[in-house]
Amino acid sequence: MRPIAESMDALRAIADSAPVAELASAFAERGHEFALVGGPVRDALLGRPVTDLDFTTSARPDETRAILDSLTKNVWEVGRDFGTIAARVHGETVEITTYRAEIYRDDSRKPDVSFGDTIEGDLVRRDFTINALALMLPELRLVDVGTASESGFGGLEDLLAGRIRTPGSPEASFTDDPLRMLRAARFAAQLGFEVAPETRSAMAEFAERLDIISAERIRDEFVKLLTTDDPVPGIRLLVDTGLADRFLPELTALVATQDDHGRHKDVYEHSLTVLRQAIELEAARGHDPSPDIVLRIAALLHDIGKPATRRFERGGVTFHHHDVVGAKLAKKRLRELRFDNDTVKRAARLIELHLRFFGYSDQQWTDSAVRRYVRDAGGELEQLHILTRADVTTRNRRKAERLEHAYDDIERRIAELAEAEELAAVRPELDGERIMEILGIPPGPLVGRAYKHLLEVRLDEGPIGEEAAEARLRAWFAEQA
Prior knowledge:
Layout: H1 4-16, H2 18-29, E1 34-37, H3 39-46, E2 53-57, H4 61-71, E3 75-79, E4 84-89, E5 92-98, E6 100-103, E7 112-115, H5 119-124, E8 133-137, E9 141-144, H6 155-161, E10 163-164, H7 170-176, H8 180-191, E11 194-195, H9 197-205, H10 215-226, H11 232-240, H12 244-247, H13 249-252, H14 267-284, H15 293-301, H16 306-309, E12 311-313, E13 316-318, H17 322-336, H18 341-353, H19 367-377, H20 381-390, H21 397-421, H22 432-439, H23 445-461, H24 466-480
Parallel strand pairs: 2-5, 10-11
Antiparallel strand pairs: 1-2, 1-8, 3-4, 4-5, 6-7, 8-9, 12-13
Helix pairs in contact: 1-3, 2-4, 8-10, 8-11, 14-15, 14-20, 15-18, 15-20, 17-18, 19-21, 23-24
């Protein structure tokens, strides 16, 4: 953490910016308290970039809306029931929430919300002491409610110590909002902080409480964790406390599954290493998008089919077809977490294809096999390159170098074929209309079968020209009769 003087300078710079100064003045003129709160304060104190401006106020939602309407035409309600109004002020998007307290009933997936009257009451209900910090505006007074806790440690002390801890008892905090347990894992990864022992123990004790949270909210928090620079510490925390078992049991099932050689690592450790290496390659190759959530999901889950396919044969362990089984398991789990269809389809495709390359290093592929590899990968070819390279975690340097050189070679051949054949858009020389015209047949399944035959010819032999394609089509059609 940077020196306090520098941190306060950073907060002062935010307070002096045009949108913040105008908002603070407008709320003060109407007799309302107004404060920058949570993540922006934490990040400014840590010397991290501040990307979002979150505020809290004593004004009720209708009053907040009226004030914002007087400042800008760009006002919208993020969640009136939760007291949050958003606006664009001087080009900045801001969210302003009324002081509140929210609590989950035992059987509810939605919190009951009531509005409060003091900044201290609002901060006490927040997830962690490092987020229970507020800068009152325009007076620039820092409020650290954590100092009033039984431990005597507040947000500033926890920032300095790199510690994640709840303002009150973790039992009460996680009972009020179980999603905070997932946020603890995310902040541990994002900030490189340690979770306090009593907080960690409560995460394990109240893991089942996560079941009342909607799949969409769990998904969103999981995605935020995966998009950090190094999500592995957070994932370890979720597995160790039993939280992962509540929404991603296929991951925890990997812990005791030995790898193909049964020696230096289990499948779980291997999967975490693959995730880390995929993230490193994502950066090294200048991959776009970055972070790539589809790639990271596939890297973490690429071996989840192994527990179901593990067999002990001739003194060894095999996992035949774990790629296909894993793709099916991933589809099912990602759908239950309410991921969109495109993400589910693409992640499952990567998992299903992640083993395809490993025969290449033993026997070089034909051009036909390379074309099929590109065709099957589709729009995920670059992600498949990264995943396949990341999947090499062997300690045998000679083997690792052999696999790396083999994949360098296949990428070179793909590039050469792509330049010569427009490989990214492999299709037959004849389309459906032309097939019907040549064969004199109406639309129907036969046209599809004919097109598929010509596509196989194209993949096997490369471009053959329209005249040769027509001859092959007629010969095929004669065989069908």
